[in-house]
């Protein structure tokens, strides 16, 4: 498949980013003791490696087979409550969640700029996998450092009333 130059350039940038992230995750894997977080980091590494393999297949001009992005494994069973994370594990988990979020945004924004529909769709799927990783990191119940303010019902009601008319425009 011949690729538009913009698609090739974006994937070349992604490949160098993936190389750095995989190496960072390998370091984090060695620093963490909690087995469920270690397993999640390993899933993240494998996901990023699958992204690399998929992008290389898309880039390879001699590739004749259909290119598909492998799915993430089902790892919901990892999330029985974690007894306690030490400070480093907590910080690593927060950082990995943020990285997964950033990678999801990066893949989605890149997909919007890509011209080849196959490349575009695969990057949207990569974004979805990154968002899934972010959600998996969110499921770790013991992480500290996140504060989520909630609005009250009255503020929601006022907002609802203010914009209710838009649905009928």
Q: Which structural class matches the secondary elements?
A: mainly alpha
Our estimate of the beta-strand percent is under 5%
Helix/strand order, N-terminal first:
HHHHH
The CA-CA distance between the termini, in Å, is 45 Å
For the record, what CATH class applies?
A: Mainly Alpha
Number of strands: 0
Number of domains: 1
Low-confidence stretches: none
What CATH calls the topology is Ferritin
Q: Which range best describes the helical content: under 10%, 10-25%, 25-40%, 40-55%, 55-70% or over 70%?
A: 55-70%
Just name the CATH architecture. Up-down Bundle
Mean pLDDT: 91
Q: How large is the count of helical segments? A: 5
Biggest sheet layout:
none
- Rg calculated over all Cα atoms: 19 Å
Shape: flat
Please characterize this protein's 3D structure:
The chain is mainly alpha-helical. It has a single domain, classed as Ferritin (Up-down Bundle), CATH 1.20.1260. It contains five helices and no strands. The protein has helices at 5-31, 35-59, 87-113, 117-138, 153-163. Helix 3 runs antiparallel to helix 4 (117-138). The protein starts with a helix and ends in a 6-residue tail after the last helix. The model has no long low-confidence stretch (mean pLDDT 91).
């Amino acid at each position: 498949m011949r690729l538009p130059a913009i698609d090739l350039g974006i994937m070349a940038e992604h490949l160098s980013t993936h190389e750095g992230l995989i190496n960072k995750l390998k370091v984090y894997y060695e620093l963490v003791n909690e087995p469920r977080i270690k397993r999640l980091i390993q899933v993240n590494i494998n996901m990023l490696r699958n992204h690399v393999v998929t992008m290389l297949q898309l880039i390879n001009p001699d590739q004749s087979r259909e290119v598909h992005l492998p799915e993430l494994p089902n790892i919901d069973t990892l999330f029985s409550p974690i007894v306690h994370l030490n400070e480093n594990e907590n910080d690593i988990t927060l950082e990995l969640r943020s990285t997964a979020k950033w990678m999801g945004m990066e893949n989605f924004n890149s997909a919007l700029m890509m011209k080849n529909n196959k490349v575009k769709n695969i990057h949207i799927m990569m974004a979805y996998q990154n968002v899934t990783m972010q959600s998996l990191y969110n499921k770790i119940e013991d992480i500290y450092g996140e504060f989520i303010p909630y609005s009250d019902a009255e503020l929601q009601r006022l907002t609802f009333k203010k914009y209710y008319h838009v649905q009928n425009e």
